[in-house]
Amino acid sequence: MEFGPMRARQVAVEASTRAVDTLAEPDYASSFEISTPQADARSPEQWARALFEEAPRALRLFLVFGWRTALGLRLGPRPSADHVLGWRIIATTSDATVLALDSPLITGHNVLEIKDSRILFSTFVRYEHWAAKAIWAMVAPIHHKTIPFLLRHATRKQR
């Protein structure tokens, strides 16, 4: 099978993805997917690492700055076997990896799933402070541009 330019697109959050995640009562949820050659044998954790840790350096710095500054997220150690660019790995299976972080402002989970020849990246956010909704409204458009870029970039770096 031959693949042309990889396109990442926003899709509806699947019920099966909600079942994988453990965040109770999220206020925000989004999913993005990209098709990938079936020959790509990376695990969900390897995909998560490719997405964040193998992103262009300037983008990694921008992400970490935004997570810490705008959202107040408490990042874990980098590099770490238990974290992906500071996000704590809270669950991993052969089909999915769940990353989590929190702050006084929000609790966030990212779920990376492998579904046949698709990579699905979902984000769940629960507001923990009255200002969180307004702050996330400013952050969400950046999130909606960044995740598709990261998916395309990681797909091009297939192993």
Architecture (CATH level 2) name: 2-Layer Sandwich
Terminal residue distance? 16 Å
Order of helices and strands: EHEHHEEEEEH
Mean pLDDT: 91
Name the beta content range.
25-35%
**Total helical elements:** 4
Count of distinct structural domains: 1
Please describe the biggest sheet, giving its number of strands, its sense, and whether it closes into a barrel.
Answer: 7 strands, antiparallel
Range of helix content: 25-40%
Question: What is the CATH topology classification name?
Answer: Alpha-D-Glucose-1,6-Bisphosphate, Chain A, domain 4
CATH class: Alpha Beta
| Cα shape | globular
Radius of gyration from the alpha-carbon trace, in angstroms = 15 Å
- Number of strand segments: 7
Summing up helix and strand content along with how strands pair, one would put the structural category as alpha+beta
> Which stretches of 5+ consecutive residues score pLDDT under 50?
none
Enumerate the strands of the largest sheet in spatial order, edge to edge or round the barrel: 1-2-7-6-5-4-3
Organism: Actinoallomurus acaciae
Pfam families: DUF2867
Protein name: DUF2867 domain-containing protein
